[in-house]
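Re-running Chromosomal replication initiator protein DnaA to confirm reproducibility after the cluster update. Everything else is unchanged from the original entry.
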Amino acid sequence: MPSIGPELRRQHEIGVAARNRLWGRPGARPGANMPRNGTAQFRRTERPAVDFVYAMRLVCEDQQVTPDQILNSTYSAAVAARHMLWTVMLDGGHPVANIARIFGVDHATVTIGIRSFRDFQKGQV
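Result of re-run:
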């Protein structure tokens, strides 16, 4: 059986490290174990939340997409990564309205995207 090259091994190690930072332990919600270095506005009060840039970087590493693709692309892999990012942000302390404001969509779109990602996690999609 052929062995993998050093470049593929490095990519695999980067992906495993990003996945561990995102998920923490098996069965955990993404973002729940991430450091809350940022803030999110909720009913006129600032609350600790996962830093948006940090969460975006981890999701991009895990899903192998760029930030520009997550923010602007309609390609299916980018949409799935966007839904994952929304889920990470929600579990990391951001309210749905704040996520919708950041991405320029309505709250129903964010809610449906998060539900879609959770169904995918359960194997229902």
